[in-house]
């Protein structure tokens, strides 16, 4: 095509088909625009790739070539759309790898693989090897086969803390201590938040476990839509990545705000140390007979949420909570031979604010 018919301001593919803009970012002094690209065909009939343009001023653009194309089984039928996160010394990319199975399928509800794939680049041009983060089997059962075009961004918060802590010393597990919600109509916010944590943990190879809190019983089975693996009434052998030592992780669900009975400790035949995960710390003194846990992780109390002199919040508002009225509100304690940690957690109870009780996501080191 004669140059005079080419776009001067807008981005135009050198040839063939151009579609979705992807991975728009500023990195290493340049603006980067990646885009859906099918060279050689005006209708996008060939396998989709990512083309790449760069600019110093958003006015003049230089085409750098194809940077991503189908070359692994998980993206054999197209490198579909996605996004990029520019960090200090490299760029992280996330996209959907498209797979079309052979057969008589509608490719909406069946027959299509939509894989979330991650790559990185030190210069925005040369890509690392591909890593598959999510497949269809990782998505909730109510989703179609069109879970695609991941949009990833960088924000401060728990995922940043998880990454930082894991880089300093390998984390053996991330544990959600229950209470996704206070009121069911806000559940979507909780699901969205925990799914971010789940994606982060999958990327880092860290198990993400959780239990049911007293408010969560209204949701039925919240783990399905939250991305964590439920350990309600389960025992799991946990192996330390640092020392190789083992422990039995036991999860007990909360039975609800107006519970008339407490969950009971299961029979544990192993001689390994036992780490009990519960929502309400008072569970410890209501376990009944059986194996006494060596360690217990819990939350529920929000560190008081609103701290007043002489623990008035417990003496007036939460008279039935026994351990808090004995002084065990937040932090580490030894209670009847069990090493206990009570987290302040991240959420709020009935009142949507805290007073002198800072939210926390804590790294707990248990020496076996």
Q: DSSP strand (E) fraction?
A: 25-35%
Rg (CA only)? 25 Å
- How many discrete domains? 2
Order of helices and strands: EEEEEEEEHEHEHEEEEEHHEE
Distance between the termini: 71 Å
Overall pLDDT score: 87
Shape: elongated
Under CATH, the topology of the largest domain can be stated as Purple Acid Phosphatase, chain A, domain 2
Q: CATH class of the largest domain, please?
A: Alpha Beta
Helix percentage: 10-25%
Number of helices: 5
CATH architecture of the largest domain: 4-Layer Sandwich
Sheet with most strands: strand arrangement: 12-13-14-15-17-16
Category from helices, strands and their pairing: alpha/beta
Query: What is the number of strand segments?
Result: 17
In this structure, how is the largest beta sheet organized? 6 strands, mixed
Q: Can you tell me the residue ranges where pLDDT is under 50 for at least 5 consecutive residues?
A: none
Which short descriptors sum up this protein?
about 375 residues; 2 domains; six-stranded mixed β-sheet; alpha/beta; 5 helices; Tachylectin-2, Chain A; Purple Acid Phosphatase, chain A, domain 2
Explain this structure to me?
The chain is an alpha/beta fold and 368 residues long. The protein folds into 2 domains: 3-138, Tachylectin-2, Chain A; 158-342, Purple Acid Phosphatase, chain A, domain 2. 12% of the residues lie in helices and 28% in strands. It is built from 5 helices and 17 strands. The chain has helices at residues 158-168, 187-204, 223-226, 312-317, 322-325, and strands spanning 17-27, 30-38, 49-55, 62-68, 79-86, 91-100, 112-121, 131-134, 174-176, 208-210, 229-230, 234-239, 246-251, 274-277, 295-298, 331-335, 338-342. The strands form 4 sheets. Strands 12-13-14-15-17-16 form a 6-stranded mixed sheet, with no helix packed on it. Strand 12 (234-239) and strand 13 form a beta hairpin. Helix 1 (158-168) runs parallel beside helix 2. The longest helix is centred in the middle third of the chain and has 18 residues, at 187-204. It is elongated.
């Amino acid at each position: 095509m004669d140059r005079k018919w080419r776009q001067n301001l807008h981005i135009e593919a050198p040839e063939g088909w151009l579609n979705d803009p992807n991975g728009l970012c500023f990195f290493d002094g340049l603006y980067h625009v990646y885009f859906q690209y099918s060279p050689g065909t005006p209708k996008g009939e060939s396998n989709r790739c990512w083309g790449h343009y760069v600019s110093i001023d958003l006015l003049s653009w230089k085409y750098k070539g194809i940077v991503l194309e189908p070359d692994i089984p998980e993206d054999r039928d197209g490198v579909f759309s996605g996004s990029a996160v520019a960090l200090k010394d490299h760029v992280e990319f996330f996209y959907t790898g498209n797979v079309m199975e052979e057969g008589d399928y509608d490719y909406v509800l069946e027959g299509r693989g939509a894989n979330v794939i991650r790559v990185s680049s030190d210069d925005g041009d040369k890509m690392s090897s591909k890593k598959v983060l999510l497949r269809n089997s990782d998505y909730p059962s109510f989703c179609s086969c069109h879970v695609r075009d991941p949009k990833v961004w960088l924000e401060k918060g728990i995922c940043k803390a998880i990454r930082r802590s894991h880089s300093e010393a390998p984390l053996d597990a991330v544990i959600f201590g229950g209470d996704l919600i206070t009121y069911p109509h806000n559940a979507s916010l909780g699901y969205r938040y925990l799914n971010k944590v789940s994606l982060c943990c999958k990327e880092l190879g860290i198990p993400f476990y959780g239990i049911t809190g007293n408010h969560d019983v209204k949701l039925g089975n919240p783990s399905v839509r939250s991305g964590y693996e439920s350990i309600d009434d389960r025992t799991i052998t946990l192996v330390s990545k640092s020392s190789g030592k083992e422990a039995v992780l036991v999860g007990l669900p909360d039975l609800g705000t107006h519970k008339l009975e407490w969950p009971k400790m299961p029979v544990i035949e192993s001689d390994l140390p036992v780490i009990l995960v519960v929502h309400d710390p008072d569970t410890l003194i209501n376990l009944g007979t059986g194996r006494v846990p060596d360690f217990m992780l819990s939350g529920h109390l929000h560190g008081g949420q609103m701290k007043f002199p002489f623990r008035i919040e417990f003496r007036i508002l939460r008279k039935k909570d026994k351990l808090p009225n004995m002084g065990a509100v937040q932090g580490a304690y030894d209670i009847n031979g069990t090493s206990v940690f009570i987290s302040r957690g991240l959420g709020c109870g009935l009142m949507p604010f805290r007073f002198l009780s800072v939210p926390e996501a804590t790294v707990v080191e248990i020496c076996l």
